[in-house]
Design brief:
Blueprint (H helix, E strand, L loop, with lengths): L6 E6 L2 E6 H4 L6 H5 L15 E3 L6 H9 L13 H10 L3 H7 L4 E14 L2 E18 H8 L3 E2 L12 E7 L4 H10 L3 E11 L12 H5 E11 L1
Parallel strand pairs: 1-3
Antiparallel strand pairs: 1-2, 4-5, 4-9, 5-7, 6-7, 8-9
């Protein structure tokens, strides 16, 4: 009985790909595993001898990305063919990919309180940005999906399940760029932001070791992220 080669040349809807046989067989129960576990003679070929699959060739690149690293597959930011890709995953019986593509739409707001320390030259000499806490607002299930173990839920006991909304979560770190990266990796995009600042009194009593200039200039900022 003839066997498939270890390296497979594909023509998917007119798009050409090269991949490994093991990659195509990697997900149990998938249509690709079924097609490439039988006889090569049962598979149609194009005139150049490539195995032909009559599906969307452009979207198939995401199928290969998923099969090569299923646990790391992420949808591209602002991807607008999610429904079509989900249909491809359903046709190919790729359960893990269906789950990855069928992400709940939602909105998450990141807020932070902080302060600036100014030098002698005022605004021209800002020394650092200090963030005291990163706040997370949104639907509980979506917040947990994005931030995982970095999400601190101690101020928001679980009453009512994951579909409720909360404005009481915060992160266990204060690295705002890390929070933005995690949102981007989960298909969110920033759609709006706002900020405000306040100046404290110069005569207020300060705790020992607190810088007077840093204490005077405080700010609060929010960034709104959306996943369609």
């Amino acid at each position: 009985m003839a066997e498939f080669p270890e390296v497979i040349e594909l023509n998917v809807g007119g798009s050409h790909y090269t991949t490994g046989l093991a990659t195509l067989r990697s997900e149990d129960g998938s249509l690709l595993q079924e097609l490439f576990s039988g006889s090569p003679h049962d598979m149609p070929r194009d005139r150049d001898g490539r195995f032909f699959i009559d599906r969307d060739g452009v979207l198939f690149r995401f199928v290969l990305d998923y099969l090569r690293e299923p646990g790391k597959f992420k949808m591209p930011a602002e991807f607008r063919e999610r429904d079509r890709l989900r249909k491809e995953a359903e046709y190919l019986r790729l359960g893990g990919m269906i789950e990855a593509v069928t992400k709940d739409p939602g909105c998450i707001t990141i807020g932070y309180r902080g302060s600036f320390q100014f030098g002698r030259d005022g605004l021209a000499d800002v020394k650092f940005r200090k963030i005291t806490r990163l706040l997370v607002h949104g639907r509980v299930a979506v917040c947990r999906e994005v931030f995982g173990d970095t999400l601190n839920e101690s101020r928001d006991p679980d009453h009512g399940g994951p579909d409720r909304y909360t404005a009481r979560f915060f992160l266990k770190h204060v690295f705002i760029e890390q929070a933005f990266d995690m949102l981007q990796e989960n298909g969110f995009r920033c759609v709006g932001s706002c900020g405000s600042g306040t100046a404290g009194s110069v005569t207020e009593n300060l705790k020992p070791g607190v810088d007077a200039e840093e204490n005077r200039w405080n700010h609060y900022n929010e960034f709104v992220f959306l996943r369609d």
